[in-house]
Design a protein that fits this description.
Elements (H helix, E strand, L loop, with lengths): L15 H6 L8 E2 L10 H17 L1 H7 L1 H15 L6 E4 L2 H9 L9 E5 L4 H14 L2 E5 L9 H7 L4 E7 L11 H11 L2 E5 L11 H4 L3 E5 L11 E5 L1 H4 L12 E5 L2 E4 L13 H17 L1 H20 L4 E3 L9 E6 L4 H10 L2 E2 L1 E4 L4 H6 L4 E6 L6 H10 L4
Length: 401
């Protein structure tokens, strides 16, 4: 996937002119911070603003009732996006809360083991450590393979009857690595162990199918590569897990108060939701999912992967620039350093040139950064609306080593 032809130019399967026309931000900045928050397409922004205007005119409850079909469409769009059924989708305010609602629903007992990857995000790792303190649970990091991805063979060797959960980040925040989710899923299914996949960075830039992967639970956000509104996210919970998980928080949406001293948790994934929510954002999230589906997830992945590979090639050719991405399979996140320059200073210089990037620091993924003795990285994350000319602009704006 990605580059084709003897010229090394990208094989374009997406109408880049059209998607850039749909993206007003392209007129103002070169946006390579899609792993933080993408530029939304006009269709998403219009959907959110239109609903807010409706609330302004008729009231919030009334607007929600009038737009029920649009908000319900979001469940269908997200289910199609990840290969699930609509009753396996819950809408929540962000990926971290989606992940937390799944993780903290699991019953723990002393001696249980959590197996995870070295590339885990800080919020997940903190939750692991908190649970270890509360329940005398062991958190164990699975070694990497020779490419830097989680070693599936090492994972298989670590499985025993005490392993309660395999929890892995599909694409880490700090690099272009793609962990072998389907192979991990096969190990989990063979062992009968629950598999929680953090797909925060992979949803929207590649095809993610929960049936093929075999995960029991998956969390994701709207604002990153999916190009949805901030303050939106979702959780996939497989139907086979629903009756085994009672969320840590319940309200009158997640459960029914059946008598003075009893309640009944609802039977679908919406047990992980709460009654109050960002209706305009939920509608916008569905529009973003439909937009991605209309372009085709395979075409998106080809375009994003190709642009990222082209950027890595350009950066590697610049004296003093080191690309730090790992993994046999890589995605749209490109991380690098410039000799003699702090990553924050590099990002500030690029910002002054109207090129948006971000910085990944040790506090966001300490197990990985400390193992590689890296203080911080410049993170440039491409999307299908970016162009090769924009890759050149980034490289030209870098300071000299």
């Amino acid at each position: 996937m990605g580059l084709s032809g003897s010229s090394g130019r990208l094989h374009v399967t997406i109408d880049v002119g059209r998607v850039r026309a749909d993206t007003p931000g392209c007129e103002h900045v070169v946006h390579f911070n899609n792993a933080g928050s993408s530029l939304p397409p006009r269709q998403v922004t219009d959907a959110v603003v239109d609903h807010l205007r409706l609330e302004e005119r008729v009231g919030g409850y009334e607007a929600a009732a009038a737009a029920l079909d649009r908000s319900e469409r979001t469940y269908d769009a997200l289910a199609e996006l990840v290969g699930a059924d609509r009753d396996e989708i819950a809408l929540v305010e962000n990926a971290t809360r989606a992940w937390d609602m799944a993780f903290y629903s699991l019953p723990w007992k002393p001696g249980d083991r959590i197996l995870t990857s070295r590339a885990e995000y800080a919020s997940n790792a903190i939750a692991f450590l908190q649970t270890a303190r509360r329940h005398d649970v062991r958190v164990e990091v699975v070694p990497d393979d020779e490419s830097g991805a989680l070693s599936v063979e090492a994972l298989r060797d670590m499985i025993d009857e005490r392993v309660k959960l395999i929890a892995v980040t599909h694409v880490p925040t700090q690099g272009g690595l793609v962990n072998p989710a389907a192979e991990i899923g096969a190990v989990a299914r063979e062992a009968g162990v629950t598999f929680l996949l953090d797909a925060c960075q992979s949803i929207g830039q590649s095809r993610v199918d929960v049936r093929e992967i075999g995960c029991d639970l998956l969390s994701a956000t709207g604002r990153k590569f999916l190009r949805g509104p901030r303050g939106t996210g979702f959780l996939y919970c497989s139907r086979r897990m629903l009756d085994r998980l009672e969320p840590p928080f319940l309200d009158l949406h997640a459960a029914t108060w059946t008598s003075a001293d009893s309640y009944e948790v609802r039977g679908d994934a919406r047990r992980f939701e709460n009654w109050e929510g960002y209706v305009a954002g939920k509608i916008g999230l569905g529009v973003a999912a439909d937009y991605a589906l209309s372009l085709g997830l395979d075409a998106i992945e080809e375009r994003v992967t190709g642009l990222a590979g082209a950027l890595r090639g350009r950066l590697a050719a610049i004296p003093g620039v080191t690309v730090h991405d790992r993994g046999a399979r890589r995605c749209g996140i490109v991380t690098f350093t410039v000799d003699g320059h702090d990553s924050r200073d590099v990002a500030a210089r690029l910002s002054a040139a109207k090129v948006n990037v971000s910085v990944s620091a040790a506090y966001s993924a300490r197990w990985d950064f400390e193992a590689r003795a890296l203080p911080s990285l410049v993170r440039s994350s491409v999307h299908y609306y970016n162009t090769e000319d924009e890759l050149d602009r980034l490289c030209e704006a870098l300071p000299s080593a």
